[in-house]
Design brief:
alpha/beta; Spore Coat Polysaccharide Biosynthesis Protein SpsA, Chain A; 2 domains; eight-stranded mixed β-sheet; 17 helices; globular
Length: 426
């Protein structure tokens, strides 16, 4: 019986070894920025789309923010898709100068369906846009956002994700640890992949998609993680998602553990859903084309499976009397010093990132609670796997109606210069 157990546990250990080393090495490539000569002349036109479901508490602040971006006003229009709204979202958005489309559909609920619907409307308009930018209603946007996306589109990039920051990182320890996780992913995952020429992934908001890509391939992403679904859809077509580190969007982070739990569970469900449909396709095409970008996409989709497997491995290892065998094999393949560095690194990387972004004192305090956030992901992932076929959309209520100016005043982060560009007439 022990031999059968070993045949299972040893291959699992080798897989865990590969994933751990792969992402640990990848993280180092997010510790710096590549030099870039930016195209500073506005050329591209944009349709800004804001997805909103009962967002009367936050929609006005975003729209006021979008009207004063440092980009020629004639080169962008602001659209709000008021999806199944029962509050004053539509009225407030119109009063704030947005072009509002109201959608009511109780059968096809969720952001993915709303985006599919509004894109079809945009394509029928007389005016044509070079790119479509998507925000959530709770967001705030850096004034240079469109100029940064213009730079990327002018360089031929087609699907671009902006830097996901937090507009309320000091509200609660939940919001604070959520913000730390996003700052960490921005650097050791998004920026690292961009530096290596790999494909990043869309994050649901603060993203820009070239109109010709949407028209050619369609949106077609309607699961609980529509952003990940579209990322993998276009990656199969050979279009990687790139990263715009200076195109900053400030997202409202959950205030309570329950909100955080529900949101992350929805993400886990959607992740498993997309993985089940796209891993076989990406693996086949990646091997056939010998394209590491596609194979890296497979690894990304396997991350939740990896978390489940590593948790099961640790649990059963301690139940089995031959546990020392697995640790001996582990240290035979990779020296114990390397594992020590990796163990330390998981705590060092957050510290390095907080130093890089010049985080406030409160964020350093919230770092104490960060392990709770990390390890709570284990039961969330198990539940996400069990409910991976459940596509019931759960809306996160947003209440932090603050302005962009308040966000700037509340932060002392100077990693991203606030006044890099001067546009004539702005």
């Amino acid at each position: 019986m022990n031999h059968i157990f070993d045949y299972i546990m040893i291959p699992m250990q080798l897989i865990i070894l590969f994933f751990t080393l792969y992402y640990f090495i990848l993280a180092f490539f997010g510790m710096w920025r590549r030099k870039e000569n930016k195209i500073l002349v506005p050329q591209k036109s944009f349709a800004i789309v804001v997805a909103a479901h009962n967002e009367e508490n936050v929609i006005v602040q975003l729209l006021e923010n979008l009207h004063v971006l440092k980009y020629p006003r004639e080169l962008y229009d602001i659209f709000v898709v008021a999806d199944n709204c029962t509050d004053k979202t539509s009225q407030l958005a119109r009063n704030a100068g947005a072009i509002v489309y109201e959608r009511f559909n109780n059968e096809q609920r969720g952001k993915g369906y709303a985006m599919e619907w509004i894109f079809a409307k945009l394509f029928r308009l007389k005016r044509k846009y070079d790119g479509i930018v998507i925000f959530d209603a709770d967001n705030l946007v850096h004034p240079n956002f469109l100029l940064e996306m213009n730079n990327r589109l002018c360089k031929g990039e087609k699907v671009i994700q902006g830097y996901l920051d937090a507009k309320n990182p000091n509200d609660t320890w939940i919001a604070g640890t959520f913000a730390i996780s996003f700052w960490l992913i921005n650097h050791i995952w998004h920026l690292a992949k961009y530096n290596l020429g790999l494909s990043s992934a869309l994050g649901g908001t603060g993203m820009c998609i070239s109109t010709d890509v949407l028209q050619e391939f369609g949106w077609g992403a309607t699961c609980l993680t529509e952003d990940l679904e579209f990322t993998m859809k276009v990656l199969l077509k050979g279009i990687r998602t790139t990263w715009a580190h200076d195109a900053i969007v400030y997202d409202e982070k959950p205030l309570t553990f329950k909100q955080s739990w529900n949101q992350r569970k929805r993400w886990a469900q959607g992740h498993f859903d997309v993985a089940g449909r796209y891993i076989p396709l990406l693996l086949y095409e990646g091997l056939r084309r010998r394209d590491w970008r596609l194979l890296d996409g497979v690894l990304h989709l396997l991350q939740s499976h990896f978390l489940l497997m590593s948790t099961v491995f640790v649990f059963f290892s301690y139940l089995n009397p031959t546990f020392h065998l697995y640790t001996d094999i582990l240290f035979t393949i990779v020296p114990v010093q390397v594992w020590t560095i990796i163990a330390i690194g998981q705590y060092v990387f957050p510290i390095l990132i907080l130093l890089m972004i010049r985080a406030q004192v409160k964020s350093w305090f919230y770092l104490i609670f960060y392990p709770i956030f990390v390890y709570s992901q284990i039961p969330i992932t198990f539940l996400g796997f069990l409910h991976r076929n459940d596509r019931e959309w759960s809306h996160t209520q947003h209440t932090r109606g603050i302005s962009y100016q308040e966000v700037v005043l509340a932060t002392n982060s100077d990693e991203f210069p606030k006044e890099n560009f001067q546009i004539a007439g702005k």
